[in-house]
Amino acid sequence: MPGPAIDEKSFIEMFESLGEAGTARRLKLNARNVQMRRVRIENKIGRQLLVPEHLRKHASIGIRHGIEHPRWLQRHVHSGVVLVGSDAHYWPGIVSTAHRAFVLFAKKFLPKIIIMNGDVMDGATISRFASIGWEKRPSLIQELEACQERLGEIEEVRGNAELLWPLGNHDGRFETRLATVAPEYAKVHGVHLKDHFPLWEPCWAVAINKDVAVKHRFKNGIHAPHNNTIWSGRTILTGHLHQLKVMPISDYNGRRYGIDTGTLADPHGPQFEAYTEQNPLNWASGFCVLTFKDGELLPPELVTVLREGVVTFRGEVIEA
Asked: What CATH code would you report for 68-319?
């Protein structure tokens, strides 16, 4: 049930102390309602309500198309689980097996951090690529609502997990399109992707402890996970290529891992069927589970979709 209504002054004090997510939890409100009230108050009083410094102190800021994105988010996990999924390419009316399993694992493992590692949305109608024939694609608002619904399912079961979202190239279509055709709208609320997902902190990359990095993409090609960890010098998780695999590397510096986090979508879903031309795909649906013990990363584990409604993890077959 929603919490009691509070006056404007109390809301401002709460927001500037707890931020968007904390205010939503305290008032038992949907985060989007908190965001809407924030905007109304900002327009009325003529200044921004600022997110507390301790919630953003790790983020150095970079400018792209006049829009601010934290470059790195530095996080520390002593002991616990971090869930990393990527390339969901959510479409309206489609709930994949991997997504359902991701929600299940978020509820079961009580992770410290949940990371959606880019390409949450597809942006089919705002692609720089022309349509193939007269294919039917969902509108941007339909995609946006589907993403809000799917991420909302994760938000409902996340417990105290922090929600992080490294930007993917498909996600970037949302603001790039607007920045190209309507640059005068820069910084207006609603034209930025993050405005529609207030509980998820956007960034370019996440650093966990001193030796793990998570970002949407780095090197390309079949050997990308291997090359990523060679070039980065640390364990690194990337998406983009949809392959779902772990490549361990051992050298004088010890053992680290290059990880492709696969796709939360069905590889043969309608998001991909036009431009893949029904070719065989070296893709796999699933996600990655990172476990830390006393600050040390244990060998990364994959959750892999076996078939519709079924995943496998640690030798078990799990219905999702």
From this structure: 3.60.21.10
Mean pLDDT by runs of 10 across the 320 residues of the chain is 75 86 83 80 78 52 44 92 96 94 97 96 67 70 90 95 91 74 75 87 94 95 94 96 96 95 94 78 95 97 97 96
21-30, long-range: CB < 8 A, 24+ apart:
21/163, 21/198, 21/199, 24/198, 24/199, 27/2, 27/3, 28/1, 28/2, 28/3, 29/2, 29/3
Q: For 160, how many CA atoms within 13 A lie in the half-sphere containing its CB?
A: 3
Instruction: Give dist(CA 171, CA 147) in Å, integer.
Output: 11
Tokens of 2: 């929603």
Stated pTM of the model = 0.77
What one-character DSSP code corresponds to residue 162?
Answer: E
Domain ranges of the chain: 8-57, 68-319
Q: How far apart are the first and last CA of the chain?
A: 29
User: d(Cα 164, Cα 263) in Å, to the nearest integer?
Assistant: 17
Question: Which helix (H) or strand (E) segment is 41 a member of?
Answer: helix 31-45
